[in-house]
Amino acid sequence: MGLKIPKVMIAAVKSGSGKTTVTCAFLKQLLCRKKHPVSFKCGPDYIDPMFHEQVLKIPSKNLDTFFSDALQIQALYEMELPGHDIAVLEGVMGLYDGLGGIREEGSSYHLAKTLDVPIILVVDARGMGKSVIPLIAGFLQYDEKKLIKGVILNRTSKMFFDTIAPLIEEELAIKALGCIPNEKELTISSRHLGLILPEEMEELNFQLEKAGQLLEKYVDVDAMIGIAESALWEKGETVTEEVKLEEKEDLEEKAYSGKVTIFSQAIFSGKNKLYDRENSGTNTIPPRIAVAKDEAFCFYYRDNLRMLEHYGAELVFFSPLHDEKLPENIHGLLLGGGYPELYAKQLEENESMRKSIKEALEQQLPSLAECGGFMYLHDTLTDREGTTYQMAGVIPAECQYMGKLVRFGYVEVQLPQGLTEKGTAERPEPEKIKAHEFHYFDSTANGEDCIATKPVTGRSWKCIHASDDHFWGFPHLYYPSDPKFVKWFLERTEKHI
Question: Annotated catalytic, 371?
Answer without folding.
Answer: yes
